[in-house]
Amino acid sequence: MTTRRAFTQIDLVFLVIIGIFLLGNFLTLRRHTSETATRVMCASNLRQIGQAILVYSIENKGTYPRTRWDPAHPCPVQFSHPNAVNPFASEGPYPNDVTAALFLLLRTVDINPNAFICPDTTLRRWDYDHQGDSPQKYSNFIGGEYLSYSLANPYSDQTAVDRGFRWDGKLNAEFVVAADMNPGTAELLQKPSQSREVTRLTLSKNHKQDGQNVLFGDGHAEFVISSFVGCNHDNIFTHGPSYPSNGGAGIIGPPADANDSVLLPVATVDPMKFTPLIRFTTRQIGFIVIAIVVLIWIVIRMIFMRRRSRSIPSNYWT
């Protein structure tokens, strides 16, 4: 006598659970892989910016990019007068404009606007070329949605200059030249020895506040999970003394000395504002569709086989 075999409801539920489990694991793996890939691409962007700064310095007697500088009134500004034709004229960006200094790279060095957008954000490159324009028609970024990196504030006061501050190729190797954008949060001014929950609020928003990529004076970029990564553990998102007693004197201000990196501008837009936080690549969407189709096929197949086994007379198996 041959034993009759057929799929049961338990088999069906079990296979569905296995399918969901495998799909969830795949998406989780893809998410981690995607995060790693975007961090690597982000670091590559910062290295491109660093190389552009070096090219600029070669063409400008060793000086790094900087527009009009007023050391007597060194309060930094950002995104001023983008439509000015001459960034150094009186009608151009205001003195001490940090974003205008960064935009000089687009005007003078062959660098793609994509390099100024972290791939882990949904911010967009400035497509001025699609409008038939060139960067020479502008003097600044027109807004925070086209820039997701901060530059070390190159506009110090005379006191910092007397203390050794410089903005050229002779920077300390540990000096932070650029990084993912400053979050501009009040928690930045607290001590470095704080809870992980508070520490996250001191990190750039570009990578969901898991950390930020940082470009150092020697040209290398790396992903770090603290804002206290400058010279002598300087807080790169604040100005003034920042270790070990506190996080700094303030968020927006001039550098205090040769080792004080003050990364500006601060974020003015949500770096994830243009699309939902959950994003899938084309490959992920394709896999999801295939997985759903296969899962439906398995379910239909099992139901069909179950009905077929019921329609066969019991004495057929004897």
Description:
The protein is α+β, with helices and mostly antiparallel strands and 318 residues long. The chain has one domain (27-264). Helix content is 32%, strand content 6%. The protein is built from five helices and five strands; from the N terminus they run ααβαβαβββα. The model has no long low-confidence stretch (mean pLDDT 85).
Tell me the layout of helices and strands.
Blueprint: H1 9-59, H2 98-108, E1 149-152, H3 158-162, E2 176-180, H4 196-200, E3 212-216, E4 221-224, E5 263-264, H5 282-311
Antiparallel strand pairs: 1-2, 1-5, 2-3, 3-4
Task: Please name the defining characteristics of this protein.
single chain; alpha+beta; 5-stranded antiparallel β-sheet
> Uncertain spans, ≥5 residues at pLDDT below 50?
none
Gross geometry: elongated
How is the biggest beta sheet arranged?
Answer: 5 strands, antiparallel
| SSE ordering | HHEHEHEEEH
Average predicted local confidence, pLDDT: 85
Q: Helix fraction?
A: 25-40%
What is the end-to-end distance?
5 Å
**How much strand content do the residues show?**
5-15%
Give a short synopsis of this structure.
The chain has one domain (27-264). It contains 5 helices and 5 strands.
